Amino acid sequence: MDRVLRTIVRIDEELCNGCGLCVTPCVEGAIELVNGKARVIKEELCDGAGFCLGICPTGALSVETREAAPFDAQAAHAREQARGPQYIEQTCFRCGSSERGAVLLPVRTEGRSLWVCTHCRPTLSHGGSVSARASPASPTPRDDRGEARAVFPALQPPARYLPPSPGHAIIAA
Fold this sequence. Notes:
The longest helix has 11 residues, at 73-83. By secondary structure, the protein is mostly beta strands. The strands form four sheets. The chain has a two-stranded antiparallel ribbon. The chain has a two-stranded antiparallel ribbon with strand order 2-3. It has a two-stranded antiparallel sheet with strand order 5-6. A hairpin with a 2-residue loop joins strand 5 and strand 6. It folds into two domains: 4-83, Alpha-Beta Plaits (2-Layer Sandwich); 89-154, no CATH class. It has helices at 73-83, 121-126, and strands at residues 4-11, 31-34, 37-40, 61-68, 104-109, 112-117, 160-162, 170-172.
């Protein structure tokens, strides 16, 4: 079989704890547990999209660009049909909303892979009703319930340059 240079999922066997959480997000069926470890069973089934990455609690999954068998969409579709629906219902770690009633996004905090709904997500990144509490004993920001607060980079609007008034240059945020 021809090999091509492309993006494909890589699983670090040393970091994999065999939890199997990465199997379900891989719709193509490229990942299975073999002898207690996650494995890409056929390169041609892996599309390299990496939906499996965010759920791994140990960070064992990554994507790499290397020579591999080309992605075979027909084989992946056939595998998906043969496996049937694979579904583990997830809930928002803040409010408990199910993905049946809310859009959930992956989030990593304190080495854990969790899910947050789009309603709670803004409070994590912009404060809102969540007060980030940190103490010398626990430097990790905590929410009002004492749970670890996920940290997202704050989006800052770019500074605007105002034309200088006579003799002054002003930068306003």
